[in-house]
Amino acid sequence: MINRILIRIKVVQMLYSYLLTRNEFQLQQAPVAKSRDSKYAYSTYLNILLLVMELSGYRVDNARRRNPMEALGDANMLSGNKLAQALASNIDIRDIIAKGGTGIELFDDTLLRLYSLITKSAAYTDYRKKKRHDLEEDVQFWCVIINTVIAMNPLVIEAARGNEEFTLAGFQKGVEMAVATLNDYQDTQTSFARAKQSLNESLEKAYELYHALLILPVYITDMENERIEAAKTKYCPTDYELNPNMRFVENAYVEAIRHNPDMEAYLKKHPFSWDSDYYMLKELLDKIKASEAYKEYMDEETTDFARDCELWRTLLRTVVFPSDALAEAMEARSVYWNDDLAIMGTFVLKSIKHFAASGRVDTSLLPIYKDDEDAKFGPELFLTAIKERDTYKSYIEKFINDSSWDPERLAFMDIVILITAITELLKFPAIPMAVTMNEYVEIANYYSTQRSGQFINGVLFSIANYLREEGRLAK
Questions:
Q1: How far apart are CA 60 and CA 81, in angstroms?
Q2: Angle at 189 between CA 147 and CA 141, to 5 degrees
Q3: Which of 138, 227, 346, 435 could covalently link to 83 via disulfide, CB atoms 3.0 to 4.6 Å apart?
Q4: Distance CA 364, CA 262 (A)
Q5: What are the CA-CA distances from residue 101 to residues 6, 25, 28, 132, 195 (Å)?
Q6: What pTM, to 2 d.p., does this model score?
Q7: Residues 378, 70: contact at Cβ < 8 Å?
C-alpha cells in the first residue's frame, strides 16, 4: 500500500537530512594559540591524514611531486579503501592540498617501508579476511594502524624531525588529533542510526495517515449527530429539528469503517483519535453541508451502501483533502503528513471503492506494503545510497565538470536525488531504467529548483550510458 513512489520520496528526504547534518571527518581548526607545540601538532595532524591518503595511492601535493606509492600501481593492497575515498572527497582536505606547503614530502622515504609494515601487521591480517568493508570498518582499521604502526615507527619520527618546528609533544598531540577526527565518525553513526529510524517512522506515519483519513468521516458524522441531538433539546425546537433528515449520520460507509475488524485491530495497537481537533472537524462539517455533493445526497429518494461510499469518496476528494484546516491539523500531528496526503489520499479513495464493491463491513484494508520486496525496497535503497555515496558522487562530478553546470553551485538536493537514482539503477536491476529516471525527475521538479528536472534527466542519462559501457548496468 505504501508504494515505491512514496518510498523514493522518503528516502530522498532522509538522505538529504542525513548528508546535510552529518559531521564525519570534520577537520579541527588551526590553533589560536601559536605555541610551538600547538603549531607543530596541527601540522602533524594534517600530515597524518594525508599519509593515510598517500598510502592508499592518492596524490596529495599540488606540485609535480610523485607519490612513491604510485610505483605499486594496482598492486597496492591499501588502495580503494573507503576512508581514503572519504578524505579525498572532503572539501577542507582538498583546499589544504591545493594550497600546498604541508611538508608531506618529508615522509616520502618512509612510505614504502610503512606500507610493508602495515600489510604485515596483525591488524591488516584481520582486516583483509573480509573482502568488502564499509566506512566504519576502514576507520577502525586506520585508527589502529595510526596508533600502532605510524605513530610508533622511528623512521616516521625521524622524518618528522625534518620540520624545524618539530617537538615530540606536538607530534604525539597531532597523532591524537588525527585519531580523534577519524573517531568522530562514531557521531556520524549515531546520525545514521537516527536517519534509518526516521525513515522507518516516516513510512509508519504514512500508514497511520491512511487509517486516520479513513476514520475521519466517523468523527465528522459524530459531530453532526451531536448537533442534531443538541437541537432537539432546545427551548423551542423547530419541526425539522425534532424530525431531522438522518441520512448523513446513518451513512452505511461510516458504520462499516467504524466497525471494520482491520481498523479496530490497527487502532487497538496504534491508538489514534481526531477528538482534539474540534475546530477542524467543525470547519469540515460546515463545508460539507454547504457542498453540492451533500445537498444532492440528502435530496435523493433512496440510497444504498454503494451510494453511501460514493458520497464520502466525493466529499474527501473535493472538500476534505483540499481543506486548509486539515492541512494545519496534519502539520501539527506529523511533519510528514502534508507531503504524504496526495499518495495516501489516493489509497483511501481506493479503499472506499473496495468497500462499495464488496458491500461488507469486514472488507480488508490495504496492508502497509504490497509484498516483501516493497518492504525491503526503502531500507536497501537508503543503506546502499549511504555506503556508495562517494563513488556515485564521483560519477556525478565526472559528467558535470565539463558541462555548463557548475559543481559548486548545484542544489544539494539535486546531488541527493542523483545519488538515490544511481543507487536504484545499480541496486535494483528489475526496475526499468525509464521508471527510475521518470520518478526522480518528478521528485526533482517538486522538491528542488525549476531547472532540476532537466538537469537530473541529462546527467542521469549520461551516467547510465557510462555504466553500461563499463559493464555495470545491464538495463
A1: 16
A2: 25
A3: 138
A4: 6
A5: 50, 21, 18, 35, 39
A6: 0.68
A7: no
Q: Which amino acid is at 280?
A: M
Whole-angstrom Cα distance, residue 475 to residue 471? 10
End-to-end CA gap in the chain: 27
Q: Please provide the DSSP assignment of 285-335 as one string.
A: HHHHHTSHHHHHHHHSS---HHHHHHHHHHHIIIIITT-HHHHHHHHHH-S
The C-alpha cell that represents 322 in the structure block: 483540499
> What are φ and ψ of residue 215, in 5° steps?
-90, -15
Neighbours of 422 (CB within 10 A): 27
Give the cell for residue 174.
597531532
Domains of the chain: 25-183 (no CATH), 190-358 (no CATH), 388-469 (1.10.940.10)
Measured CA to CA, the distance from residue 241 to residue 282 in angstroms comes to 19
pLDDT digits (tens, 9 = 90+) for 247-256: 999 999 999 9
User: Three-state SS across 180-236?
Assistant: HHHHCHHHHHHHHHHHHHHHHHHHHHHHHHHHHHHHHHHHHHHHHHHHHHHHHCCCC
Pick from 70, 75, 77, 73: nearest CA to 54: 70
Kindly state the DSSP code that residue 448 receives in the 8-state scheme. S
- C-alpha cell at position 253: 460507509
Q: What are the grid coordinates assigned to 55, written together?
A: 598510502
